[in-house]
Amino acid sequence: MNKHQFLSMTAASLIAAGALAAAPASHAASMEKCFGVATAHHNDCAGISGLHSCKGSSPNNYNPGDFRVVPTGTCEKLGGLDMAQAKTILKNPAEVKAFEARMEAKAKG
């Protein structure tokens, strides 16, 4: 392999690596956190409710403090909340129970 071929292969490898590194960023931009749609033990990461600190450890269904990462635009269709809405509901235990009951009823059809 001569010097020119080596440099061409190196440049092509760097360009390909750069394209692969950019792919996750564009995928992440098309996703959003959707609070209140996770079922028990199917949450993504720690929730804002403070009930747990790990993925998959949500103790109950549809807690507004727990989230799933969903494609952008899907959350509203699922009946979920953004972070500001979730924080507001979490301040009132009666609202938390009412939200969970609405989501449970929606899931049962």
From TrEMBL:
Pfam families, sorted: DUF2282
Record InterPro entries: DUF2282_membr
Range of residues in the leader sequence: 1-28
Keywords: Signal
Protein name: Uncharacterized protein
Organism: Metallibacterium scheffleri
